[in-house]
Amino acid sequence: MSRNSSEQRGGGGGDYSLDIINGGDHHEMTDDREFGFSGPLSTNNDNNNNNKNKSKKKKKKEDADDDEEEAYVEITLDIHDDSVAVHSVQAATTGQEDPELALLTKRTLNDINKSSSFGSSRFRTASSRVITHVSQELKRLASNSIKRSSTSTSRRFHRTKSAAAHALKGLKFIATKTTGPSASAAWPSVEKRFDQLTANSHGLLPSSLFGECIGMNKESKEFAGELFRALARRRNLTGDSINKSQLQEFWEQIVDESFDSRLQTFFDMVDRDADGRITEEEVREIISLSASANKLSNIQKQAEEYAAMIMEELDPDNAGYIMVQNLEMLLLQAPNQSVRVTDSRILSQMLSQKLKPTQENNALSRWYENTKYSVMDNWQRVWVMMLWLGIVSGLFAYKFVQYRRKEYAFEVMGYCVCIAKGGAETLKFNMALILLPVCRNTITWLRNRTKLGRVVPFDDNLNFHKVIAVAIVVGVGLHVGAHLTCDFPRILNASEDDYEEYLKPYFGDEQPPNYWWFVKGVEGVTGIIMVVLMAIAFTLATPWFRRNKLNLPKFLKKLTGFNAFWYSHHLFVIVYTLLIVHGIKLYLTKTWYQKTTWMYLAVPVCLYACERLIRALRSSIKAVKILKVAVYPGNVLALHMTKPQGFRYKSGQYMFVNCAAVSPFEWHPFSITSAPGDDYLSVHIRTLGDWTRQLKTVFSEVCQPPTAGKSGLLRADTQVGGNNPSFPKILIDGPYGAPAQDYKKYEVVLLVGLGIGATPMVSIVKDIIGNYMNMKPSSSSSGFRTQKAYYYWVTREQGSFEWFKGILNEVAEMDERGIIELHNYCTSVYEEGDARSALIAMLQSLHHAKNGVDVVSGTRVKSHFAKPNWRQVYKRIALQHPNSRVGVFYCGAPALTKELKQLASDFSHKTSTKFEFHKENF
User: How would you describe this protein's topology in the membrane (predicted)?
Assistant: First the structure.
């Protein structure tokens, strides 16, 4: 038997759930702090009562034989150090144990049984103390508890430690770091801020600065003002300012850990007229205030409707008000959405202990362990990089030795010419190689039609492209630097005899008189132009310029952004042309077959040229027609278009989009959000740069406000036989391979989308559901490997949920087998445990229970608050899928990449579950 564990506080204690089976006595160890065991209602711990209990136990044994169902009762206890309290008592259902939890617990027990003797001694000590407390508490409450559980048809939550502990989580007015034992330590910082804020107001703090003084952010200014007024009313203060001693009184009440104190403070905030009753208007105002603090504009607009719903729930007698007891009941009964049966704290703590890194004292051992894990996680990248570095080093060494042996050059220019020619050889190779990672059609074909994807990390093609670019910069530096600072000065200063003997056949009859002689030649002109153009292209491709991260004057803003990057990269057409010319007009090489530049470039340049030609032909032949346009909150444009004949793609792939009305030359990549089984194509484009901003503008001009029942801020639909709007022409090119398309290789997948990064994940979710809907019920070998998907979408704004509202509802309705777990996170809402989101959480629970719709997302998927605890996410998946390979697919900003990748590595090394991380940044 099991139950969700409550929040643990302090050093020990927890929530215990027992099966009381008359006539049996069996204890099971589950953890060094928590225990699940079953035993007789009257235990044998008290030797003085043994004889008295015999007749009672015999009587109970007979009753159990007559009515087996009445012999079982479930009692859930809260045990904290030296105190025991009954959380709930109810009749237990026999023979219906959760098999999944039983399996996990069994595994946990096996692991713990293998632990050290130290751990066992800790358990025996704790077990003895706990069983004693349980026995005493059960003796006191057994008879009336059983009667109440067998006759009651509805279960009530009582003010137990477990319920109060959960409720307290939702009523913290200040960040956790300032509560509990550290509250007194935090007062000096509050006092310091008070002194700074009241320096010019004679020691009086106005209510407008109260939030800043106690540590709340600017977005919570209104909430802090309401808290100030509630605390002032409790003390009959009528002014708008307080002194330091009054602030200290306020502070002590704010950080008070008792449930009654927090509940009363929250009630006072709602009860504005201080009459001890909360009216519907007061509920509406506090909903509006909480929604404003959490940036939930939709809830703010519907505050009146939600206030009426709360009053209907808590005021069934239509008294026109609710009391503090009603608010307390709502708090105590609000479900804790973050706790699941299969994610009990027992198992979580066990796994956490396993994952604690063992710190090696030996630095060499630490280095070895880190290197080993790094190679295991990145072996594909390692061998590719080693091969590339080996080739580059080999080419440099080959050319270095070759010119070391050429007496005519080495005698005058020395090792300078060896370095220059070695750098030039690596430069030719890398200038050819850098084109291959951007041949997208070729890479897509290789990953789809061959098995190279198992050993070649095609997902890192752009990263490899950037690495090669760095190597090109190094090669240019070696080649140009050695020529300018060493070779040319040596030639200019060579003696007449040396020049006549060694250099005359290569530089002409007359010795070069100055630097200008080298610059004005074909070699010099082409070299200088190439270096300048490459410097421009490389500079504008850096993140600072490409993502507009530099605060430049307005007239220089055109040098930043994606457009500047895109156009500057096309300067390489000139660069490659000049490179071939430069490679033909060499000073020291006159034989044609020794001029190898064109040999390096021939195949890659032709391949890339064919790629661009295919793109142009394919986009012009495969025309698309716009079916629907919608502009959503958060500056997102959704385009639905017809699917060209023969356009086949996989979920997770992307395509390029061109709009001549914005720019006839620019093509931009976007993830495909429709599933392969859909009869249309769709993309969701967020305004992040100049091109996307203009695209949204040209489509918004043909849109209108949506009619009733339609989503979006602006919308336009194509109707059969109707007067359809004139949409701008769209061309598409693709599809192209992306990391997320490989999700079908895994039985379990974790899909993480950050903001607009949810786009490829939405397509995957739809594809999974579509595959299972088309699968015959009796079929067990359909070839579709994915059995479970965890979808996590993290976004800042409530309006973002409008983007995929219909899709999420569709998936939730169609997923009858529970294949997909949908998790929406709204980071603008304060985390669970903050009083600013307490009423939102209560409202969310009520509304979802009554209507099946989440008030935050507007979908059937219940939203979580703040950011996910990614370690807990990985931990739960590892617990539920031991000995499995889990594909982790992330799409979004680079900020989260490092954490998710590191967690995947940690859990892969410390558990039997192997997490394979794939990412796609934008």
Answer: Multi-pass membrane protein
Short-list 799, 846, 797, 854, CA closest to 822 = 854
Count the neighbouring beta carbons within 10 Å of the beta carbon of residue 316.
Answer: 9
Residue 155 has pLDDT above 50, yes or no: no
Which of the two residues, 447 and 158, has the higher pLDDT score?
447
Residues with Cβ within 8 Å of residue 596, at least 6 apart in sequence? 428, 583
* Separation of alpha carbons 76 and 85, rounded Å: 9
Q: What is the pLDDT of residue 622?
A: 65
3 state DSSP class of 14 = strand
510, 516 contact by CB (below 8 A) = no
Going by C-beta distance under 8 Å and a sequence separation of 6 or more, which residues neighbour residue 189? 215
Q: Give the separation between CA 712 and CA 631, rounded to whole angstroms.
A: 6
Closest by CA position to 827, among listed 874, 872, 853, 864? 864
Residue 680 CA to residue 502 CA, distance in Å, equals 71
CA atoms within 13 A on the CB side of 227: 31
Apex CA 94: angle with CA 91 and CA 100, to 5°?
110
State the architecture of 623-737 in CATH terms.
Answer: Beta Barrel (2.40)
pLDDT single digits (tens) 579-631:
999 888 877 776 777 788 889 999 999 999 998 888 878 777 667 888 989 88
For the chain, the residue count is 922
Q: Is the separation of the CB atoms in 137 and 86 below 8 Å?
A: yes
Residues 6+ apart with CB under 8 A from 531: 476, 480
Residue 468 pLDDT level (bands cut at 50, 70, 90)? very high
Of 685, 669, 709, nearest in space to 803 by CA: 685
**What is d(CA 564, CA 556) in angstroms, rounded to the nearest whole number?**
11
- Using DSSP, how many helices (H) and how many strands (E) does the chain show? 35, 19
Sheet holding 83-91, edge to edge: 38-39, 14-21, 72-80, 83-91
- Alpha carbons 436 and 443: distance in angstroms, whole number: 8
What CA–CA distance (Å, rounded) separates 813 from 861? 10
Amino acid code (one letter) for 521: G
Domain range 739-775+783-827+867-921, CATH class: alpha beta
pTM over 0.90: no
CATH node for 164-336: 1.10.238.10
| Cβ contact 15:75 at 8 Å | no
- Given a contact cutoff of 8 angstroms between Cβ atoms, the answer to whether 916 and 888 are in contact is yes
* CA–CA–CA angle 420, 422, 427 (5° rounding): 90
164-336 and 623-737 have identical folds: no
- The Cα 905–Cα 374 span in angstroms is 9
The residue with tokens 């429709």 is 674
Q: Please give the Cα distance from 195 to 846 (Å, whole number).
A: 43
Convert the pLDDT of each residue in 712-737 to its tens digit: 788 888 876 667 778 888 888 888 88
What region, left, alpha or beta, does residue 635 occupy, with left being phi > 0 and alpha being psi -120 to 50 degrees? left
Q: Position 131: which residue type?
A: I
Alpha helices in 152-220 (DSSP H): 161-169, 183-197, 210-214
Alpha helices in 33-116 (DSSP H): 50-66, 99-113
The sign of the dihedral angle between the CA atoms of 503, 506, 508, 509 is: positive
3-state secondary structure of 685: strand
Q: What torsion, rounded to 10 degrees, do the Cα atoms 325, 329, 330, 331 define?
A: 100
Range in 721-725, 785-789, 845-849, 894-898 with the lowest mean pLDDT: 721-725
Burial class of 686 by CB neighbour count within 10 A (0 to 12, 13 to 18, 19+): buried
User: What's the gap between Cα 125 and its chain centre?
Assistant: 42
Mean pLDDT value across the chain = 75
Q: Domain segments of the chain: what residues? A: 164-336, 378-520+586-616, 623-737, 739-775+783-827+867-921
